[in-house]
Amino acid sequence: MYPTQNRRVILKSRPLGIPEAEHFELVSAAVPALRAGELLVRNDFLSIDPAMRGWVNAAANYANPVAIGEVMRAFTAGVVIASRHPRYAEGDRVMGLLGWQEYAITDGSAVRRKVTEADLPLSLALGILGLNGVTAYLAFTEIGEPRPGDTVVVSTAAGAVGSAVGQIARIAGCRTVGITGGPQKVRCCLDEFGFDTAIDYKSADFEQVLAAACPQGVNIYFDNTAGAVSDAVLPHIARGARIIVCGTASVASWDPPPVGPRVERHLLVKAARMQGFLGLDYEHRLDEVVARLAAWVRAGQLRYREEILDGIEQAPASIAGLYRGENTGKRLIRMRHADSTC
Amino acid sequence: MYPTQNRRVILKSRPLGIPEAEHFELVSAAVPALRAGELLVRNDFLSIDPAMRGWVNAAANYANPVAIGEVMRAFTAGVVIASRHPRYAEGDRVMGLLGWQEYAITDGSAVRRKVTEADLPLSLALGILGLNGVTAYLAFTEIGEPRPGDTVVVSTAAGAVGSAVGQIARIAGCRTVGITGGPQKVRCCLDEFGFDTAIDYKSADFEQVLAAACPQGVNIYFDNTAGAVSDAVLPHIARGARIIVCGTASVASWDPPPVGPRVERHLLVKAARMQGFLGLDYEHRLDEVVARLAAWVRAGQLRYREEILDGIEQAPASIAGLYRGENTGKRLIRMRHADSTC
Fold first, then answer.
1. DSSP state of B313
2. Which positions of chain B have pLDDT values less than 50?
3. Quick check: A337 and A68 in contact, CB under 8 A?
4. pLDDT given at position B342
5. Which residues of A touch B275 (CB under 8 A)?
6. Are A160 and A129 in contact (CB under 8 A)?
7. Which stretch of DSSP H or E encloses residue B139?
8. Where are the beta strands (DSSP E) in B224-321?
9. Rounded to 5, what percent of chain B is helix, strand, coil?
């Protein structure tokens, strides 16, 4: 049944730093009729990602910021419920940048891929088989260039990206050291995600424990945080180390940029490399990487956690919680549709 | 004639930060007889390099520090005046880590290469055909991965490494922007080393001039300084930029490390790379690179400046001057030997 009304979350004002509930507004709009070449997607899951902070801030970034009054940019997973597009049929499952809204009309350009893993839950297309898993795999392998026996340190190790990195590193034959916050997440890293060592950065002896966990130095540091955790890792990098800059979760605002210990000397004396990762550079590899990750998920080698919030009303406040470290695993909004079966 | 006495500069005390004259002492020692497998080199030129700071400081580095009482580690160029080594004959010109002393005995392990460019001055083996030129070439090509049309920014652009980088970048088809201190060095960058633009970092409008000089962003930043100059360049890096960390001349001491604006966000949103360069990793390419540089020198495409100080007595105070920006071009000590002809 073709919907008439579409509830959507728009950007109401531009935050400085972390976006809070007050920066968004839930509004309702009519759903127009489909034109030739368009398809209508019912969003069943909305993704909540740390990257969204960058999407709504005015500071220089890898994408133009979301405009005030525009639907919040977001990855979603859903089902095609009407199509006048030659490549999509009713019932196709898709993932794409379809926004925080119940329904999305697109000419296909916003669709990132058809979700063909019919045996796996659709929500995975936003997490372990989506931005998080694909980022973990590509950033770790392309920038990290892992070798068996390497010591790999991962920050936000219990998070959606970090937990995948730890497991992919183990599959690659590396020794894995996870850094996370609090004893519960430490246990989760050890028991659920199989890190060889997990360290609580909030503990008083964090720096000593970290040093003891990396007696041969750190060959790969997968950095999701920047800040104090990174400052503790840098002095322990090994000759030829690779530092993957994937996120800066610990930094509340980059305007002005915060100061920290300079990194040049570490990079110089260790002939080490520090490199930023943007998934946009690797879109052509999406299907290949998803197939690889899906096979590991089916084999039980790659585990994941989801934290599912119910209803689009939860969306506006959901980003800030990521930065407070509230979540364990991938945070998602599950939509309540009158006609939904999921 | 086999020498009897050898004047040498030893490390007397360990500096914190930049080594000054007071940290060294000029002493005299007897020259022992050669044993089988050894050669005796008469050092004609001693090299003065910013890297020497690291060699005498206790902080973690890429090499063990020079011990107190030991001859100061240094590259030198000289002539074999006696040999019981099968690969070296009297009269061979050599370059190696033979120390701040008039004569050096080695089993050959300290010799870096035979200097076979008989048509070029021996001193070049320490500068444009030595550590400086080889570092400039390898760091720029291996880490910088230049492409024609790239905008290349070089700090300490009038220095021994920086001036070579600018010229090699131009040969590679890049647009070159040199950063240096004072109007005299700016002129030198433009007139002698052919930079497309040269900027005085001491001028009041440095940041605006830098931004205007890089309208398409900076594709390669060859960093010899760290510090305020780097902080001004980072906001202008282009997507996919390469930052070559080759030296940290502007930082007086790394113990404790100074703070500066964090770099992570720049690297992340530009998918950029920052990497340290150590020549030690490329020793196997020395002869190849020297041959390439020598050809450019002969063709007049690669110019250099030398600043020659006379006599080993000048050595102890000579490092600190580099850090004050006193020199233009490669700083060397020319030795006065009774039997020398140079």
1. G
2. 341-342
3. no
4. 45
5. 267, 271-275
6. no
7. none
8. 237-245, 259-261, 273-276, 306-310
9. 30, 25, 45
CB contact under 8 A, B226 and A267: no
Site from B49, B264, B273 to mutate, A interface, most A CB atoms within 10 angstroms: B264
- Find the mean pLDDT for residues A300-329: 91
Calculate ∠ Cα B283-B286-B290, nearest 5°.
160
Task: Please answer yes or no on whether B271 and A271 come within 8 Å at the CB atom.
Answer: no
CATH topology of domain B5-127+305-334: Quinone Oxidoreductase; Chain A, domain 1 (3.90.180)
For A282, name the nearest residue in chain B, comparing CA atoms only.
Answer: B271
Helices and strands, counts by H and E, chain A: 9, 16
What's the CA gap between A164 and A160, in Å, rounded?
A: 7
Report DSSP letters for A208-219, one per residue: HHHHHH-TT-EE
| Domain boundary assignment for chain A | 5-127+305-334, 131-280
Please tell me the CATH code under which domain A131-280 is placed: 3.40.50.720
The encoded tokens of residue B173 equal 């088809």
d(CA A10, CA A26): 6
- The minimal CB distance from B276 to the residues A223, A254, A272 is found for A272
Which pLDDT value is given to residue B60?
55
In this prediction, residue A342 carries a pLDDT of: 45
Contacts of A323 (CB under 8 A, 6+ apart): A18, A50, A53, A249, A252
Task: Give the three-class secondary structure for B186.
Answer: helix
Mutate which: B64, B262, B270, vs A, most A CBs within 10 A: B262
**Length of chain A counted residue by residue:** 342
The rounded distance, in Å, linking the Cα atoms of B47 and B306 is 11
* Cα-based angle B125, B146, B175 (whole degrees, multiple of 5): 90
SS3 B178: strand
Q: Of B159, B145, B161, B212, nearest to B188 (Cα)?
A: B159
Helix (H) or strand (E) holding A291: helix A286-298
Residues of A with CB under 8 A from a CB of B: 54, 60-62, 223, 226, 230, 235, 239, 245-248, 251, 254, 256-278, 281
> B268 and A245 in contact by Cβ < 8 A?
yes
Which pair of structure tokens corresponds to residue A54?
């960058």
The predicted-structure confidence for B126-157, as pLDDT tens digits, reads as follows: 999 998 999 999 999 999 999 999 999 999 99
Per-residue pLDDT of B32-83, as tens digits, reads 999 999 999 999 999 999 889 889 987 656 678 999 999 999 999 999 999 9
User: What is chain A's alpha carbon radius of gyration, rounded to the nearest angstrom?
Assistant: 20
From the CA of A41, how many Å to the nearest CA of chain B?
A: 30
β partners of residue B11: B24
Which residues sit opposite A180 in a β-bridge?
Answer: A200
Q: ipTM for the complex?
A: 0.89
What pLDDT is recorded for position B81? 97
**Which residues, 6+ apart, have CB-to-CB distance to A75 below 8 Å?**
A46, A47, A49, A95, A96, A97, A98, A112, A126, A130, A131
Q: C-alpha distances in angstroms, B220 versus A334, B268, B275?
A: 45, 16, 11
B125's tokens: 């083996």
Angle in degrees, CA A318, A320, A323, rounded to 5: 120
The CA dihedral of B245, B249, B254, B260, to the nearest 10 degrees, is -70
